[in-house]
Amino acid sequence: MRLGILGAGAIGAKHAAAAVSVGVDVGRVVDRDADRAAALAGDYDAASGSDAKSLWDDSSLDAIVIGVPNCFHRPMALEAMRAGKDVLLEKPMALTAPECDELIAAAEETGRVLQIGYTHRFTAVGSGAKGVVDAGELGAVYHAKAHLYLRRGVPGLGGWFTTKAMSGGGALIDLGVHLLDLGLHLLGQPTAVAVSGKAYAKFGVTMQEYLYELMWAGPPNYDGVCDVDDYATALVTFDSGATLDLQVAWACNLPVGTVPDSMVALLGDRGGLSFELFGDHLLLRSQIAGRNADSKLTLPAVDQMSLQMADFAEAVASRTPGVGATPVEGRKVQAIVDAIYKSDKTNSPVTL
Ligand SMILES: NC(=O)c1ccc[n+]([C@@H]2O[C@H](COP(=O)([O-])OP(=O)(O)OC[C@H]3O[C@@H](n4cnc5c(N)ncnc54)[C@H](O)[C@@H]3O)[C@@H](O)[C@H]2O)c1
Questions:
Q1: pLDDT at 213
Q2: How far apart are CA 236 and CA 246, in angstroms?
Q3: Closest CA to 169 of 155, 189, 179
Q4: CATH number of the domain located at residue range(s) 2-118+306-325 in this protein
Q5: How much is the pTM?
Q6: pLDDT of residue 206
Q7: 121-304+333-351 CATH choice from 3.30.70.890, 3.30.70.20, 3.40.50.2300, 3.30.360.10
């Protein structure tokens, strides 16, 4: 497979490295910042430029990775598919569920592969947990809990990440979507039927007063905009009767050490498990020989970006979805995000 990359930022560079690690050629890199595109392309002996059309017109490319700000996901993926390219589209799939509907329709019309970059499915713990669930070791899983707490992690304050018109939201649509996708994946892709949530903007919006400790996509631009959430919480009920409890923070005042910074937990009627998002092991609870026992399963390290790229290349070759998120699955995440923002705005639960 020969790949084009749209967006030579943080994630574009990771996709390029992942591609070559699994034998996929990087043929062209485009970024609206031509120097940035040239710098990344130079590492891979690829062509570069600042016009996305050069990707669509390059007949040597089979597929495109799209890693640009969220507001460009829908229009760029539509153009790529209509130009006959298969697409690995970064998360979130789009800004809203109706935008996802347009992408689903276009993928069907054009017959293109559209995979959404929910990479936590490919981590050692994400794929390990899926294996445990699918083997039936937990019995029926009735509840998932997922949290991720950054203390002062608002990215690119004043830039596209914190400008709702470009990002669609803050911590929830940036990081919360990973937790939602992983929860849906592990629960077997149920459909959300009720959502009660809140989203708060307490830190970034203070701009100069925000005392930050780390800032990816920085430095801050104090003349820019911050109008997005930095903490969100929700309880999601699914058609299966299962529930998912979510908390996600770019920034919050939870003292360090209170709970793990991240955790995904599954409660089943025969067993349970928990893990940290970038951990190397699962903790398991089950009945063994008539006793309740906890155990630890340490997993071999993997590179989730490479596994995701290999899965995408296989989907392109076989025209069959692999482990990666399909457009319909990407929309499920987005419908929950939309409902959390609606529930927040109306201060009441939302039924779907
Ligand atoms: N899967 C993950 O774990 C993960 C991690 C990081 C980012 N992401 C996603 O990847 C996307 C990009 O994030 P990032 O951290 O790389 O951002 P970034 O700001 O580092 O890079 C974005 C790049 O896109 C370029 N760009 C902006 N608008 C463009 C346009 N219209 N056409 C072409 N190029 C354009 C910018 O010049 C920049 O180089 C986001 O959607 C983000 O949610 C996913």
A1: 81
A2: 8
A3: 155
A4: 3.40.50.720
A5: 0.98
A6: 94
A7: 3.30.360.10
